[in-house]
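Justification of computing resources. Each target in the renewal requires a structure prediction run like the one illustrated here; the chain below, 65 residues long, is used simply to show the kind of job we budget for.
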Amino acid sequence: MDGYEIADEILKGLDFQKIGKDWIHPAVGISIEIPSNFLTGDYNKVTELPLDENKKVYVIHLREQ
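Resulting structure tokens:
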């Protein structure tokens, strides 16, 4: 992801806490890791999730509890 510093600022503004390489939201129980600009893994494992009509997010792993 380009703009790593911007993501850090936005996530902290949403009450995420930076712990190691992850941002964790203690109240919601969500953990986010933003890898570098280039994915070295398998692109077939990437899921595209729509946020609204004009925005989407790409996720490498989803886990239900």
